[in-house]
Write a structure and sequence with these properties.
Oligomer: homodimer
Order of helices and strands of chain A: EEEEEHEEEHEHHEEH
Shape of chain A: elongated
Helix content of chain A: 25-40%
Number of helices of chain A: 5
Distance between the termini of chain A: 53 Å
Strand content of chain A: 25-35%
Mean pLDDT of chain A: 94
Radius of gyration of chain A: 20 Å
Structural class of chain A: alpha+beta
Chain lengths: 229, 229
DNA sequence: TGACAGGGTGTTCGCCGGACACTATGGCGG
DNA sequence: CCGCCATAGTGTCCGGCGAACACCCTGTCA
């Protein structure tokens, strides 16, 4: 079946930059392409938008189809539409930005025969299309946003230690933070629930676990509170 | 001439939210539609993206065609793609956000038979499509961005008084600012060039004029300086 | 039992943001 | 010409917050 229009139309895709965090590093999800163009190259998960589908829904669907992941945070990032960004012709892509708790998503291998894997964001292979630029934009966004919105927690397991949280901020912001000042500030916000649990299976003194209190955050937010760093 | 594709494709447009500032209020540029759908209604300037044209270029072109305006600041805002946002079918619009010096753009009336006019952003007529939502998103962006990037100056004439600048911030941020603190802070940044001129034709003491020093800003920016409020 | 690998904790100081009120000028009208 | 009006322009104090900074604690493992 074919479709005919009076004027030429670009194709529209969505692509997702999905970030996850393991104990050392910030990771991004990539898919190895199995078809031309750029067959064999790594690329961001994504695909064509259906005619009856909202853009956000398309992003979620493609992500789930290609990796099985349902992100805990998803937002639109930027729309890339350089006329020559896809060798097949005019393709405009609406890029999305997603955060997942890596621990909860041990990639059940390739859901539909495509290979998916996590890469350190500082050390990715050469990417297809303009996906390196998209990734760069997403990193900037993450770096900017993490300081004034509590989205960093979406990258950590539900229960986490303050050291994990600090490492996360250090990796994302690309600078070291003072342990005492960091703890003082984050605890002063009163957004973390101190649990009666400590981490397990570590070969040194075990750290206390905390949980982010979404409900309290929403309350404070309404009252004009601003999360910052 | 017609164009045929294997899969259906959405149409892609750009729409521009153009802000200007007069002595009292923040304004937005609207165009009265002359064709269906929403004929007679006011809408944001915009139109279809050409096949060989970057998105930014499309935004600039449509804006110039419909109003003669060449904005001093233009950036992508957000992409709106709800399946039912246009009664003609699937139309995805990439919205842009633009700032102009109102004084320099006394709308040479309708460049191509369409009616264009400035409206107070707090008091617009009912808008076509989902343009009210687009405008709301743009206002949020302006409000957020004006505090940590010196884009407010794009809304003022090249030479302005500190009172004009303060009024601009008050209108955009929707709150009153203390005159002494505002002046202290903005002057401390050392980004304003104090001119040997005062405003003319006012029926009270004339205020000194200042000019924003773009060059100095770029230097400081490189050195890690951060503009704030 | 000692060494190692993080965990956890307070104080000081300088700066900046916020609150706050009066004098100075210039135009205009009476 | 004098007084009024409308806006311009100016400085201080205080409290809070961010930045710098070092040592003891605890649990594990060899």
């Amino acid at each position: 079946m074919s479709h005919t229009y009076d004027y030429p139309r670009p194709a529209v895709t969505v692509d997702c930059v999905v970030f996850g965090m393991d104990d050392e590093d910030l990771k991004v999800l990539l898919i190895r392409r199995g078809v031309e163009p750029f067959s064999g190259r790594w690329a961001l998960p994504g695909g064509f938008v259906r005619m009856d589908e909202a853009l956000d829904d398309a992003a979620r669907r493609e992500l789930e189809e290609e990796s099985g992941i349902r992100p805990s945070h998803l937002e639109q990032l930027y729309t890339f539409g350089a006329p020559d960004r896809d060798p097949r012709g005019r393709v405009i892509t609406v890029a999305y930005f997603a955060l997942v708790k890596l621990s909860a998503h041990h990639l059940h291998a390739s859901t539909d025969a495509r290979e998916a894997a996590w890469f350190s964001v500082w050390d990715t292979p050469k990417l297809a299309f303009d996906h390196a630029e998209v990734l760069g934009t997403a990193l900037q966004r993450l770096k900017g946003k993490v300081r004034y919105q509590p989205i960093g927690f979406e990258l950590l397991p539900p229960k986490f230690t303050l050291s994990q949280l600090q490492r996360l901020y250090e990796v994302v912001l690309e600078r070291e933070l003072d342990k005492r000042n960091f703890r003082k500030k984050i605890l002063a916000m009163d957004l973390l629930e101190e649990l009666d649990e400590v981490e397990q299976d570590v070969s040194h003194r075990a750290a206390r676990l905390y949980r982010f209190d979404h409900k309290k955050y929403r309350q404070l937010e309404k009252a004009g509170f601003n999360f910052e760093l």
